[in-house]
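Subject: Sanity check before I submit

Could someone independently write out the structure tokens for this chain? I want to compare against mine line by line before I put it in a report. The sequence has 337 residues.
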Amino acid sequence: IARRWRPQQFSELVGQDHVVKTLGNAIGMERIAHAYLFVGPRGTGKTTSARLFAKSLNWEEGPSLEVPPESEIGQAIMEGRCLDVIEIDGASNNSVDQVRELRDECQYAPAQCRFKIYVIDEVHMLSQAAFNALLKTLEEPPPHVKFVFATTESQKVLPTIVSRCQRFEFRSIPVDLIKAKLSEICEKESITVDPEALEAISRMAMGGMRDAQSILDQMISFCGKELSQKDVLEVYGLVSREEIKNLGSCLLDGDYGKTLAITDSFATVGVDFYRALLDLADFFRDRLVNELNNESSHSYPEQVVRILDGVAELVDALDSGSSVRKDVRVRISPSAP
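---
Independent answer below. Compare away.
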């Protein structure tokens, strides 16, 4: 699904309107930079946007933000068979010799397109020597060459590289946008799915459209043409919103006996505690916002803040804890066995 439903136009890109608008204005005003840096979490459209931008620049009658589907060059770029759009994996092509080869190839004119475009994915994986070999070319490239870098870890990219690029921040995609896109996919694929199941998949993707589509693909393989929330929770060890709400209410009421019983039941059915804690943090964060916005409320936001701090500490502890269940019990009730 992730490959079949990859955006073919900028209008199909979900959750990155600010990027689409800026690139569209750059093309319309003929203010195209020589190097771009796409930064953001995985699965948010960085590499896809690089391909779409290359297609927009090299369309036979372009440059234009929207390219007709019948464009031969556009099809070749999206399918990865265009000679003048070179995609390089920074993780496996990170030596200084490979970057020097790239630098030498830049001097040659494009074979069939308007621009020769280098798309380097995971650019932060390049070695220090490779970055240095790229600096001069990146600062003054030939007029027919454009660079597009993509990375999930911008802090590892040399500042001297960043300063030579226009930087675009790709944001995590909101749950409602992911849910709407998955609903559209299911409708086109003739899949019957509960809205609650789509909600669970969208939350689990944590802002990544590709992750959400991969999860949906796996669920279709598991369930066939009908997906329910129960199936999603069972396969991925998730907790329903109702159970999270029940657990949150017990913590607010100070009912530690029931809280421990609920966490024990989670352990019995094999719930992913880490994911459950993230969902619990979301519950209390929404609760805090509602209480702060409700002036007539007689509740105590400070209590929610303390619980949020405790959940955050527990999430950090679980990264290195040897016994997840024991860690949860001890932090909920210091007197618990």
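---
OP: Matches mine. For the report I'm noting this point. The radius of gyration is 24 Å.
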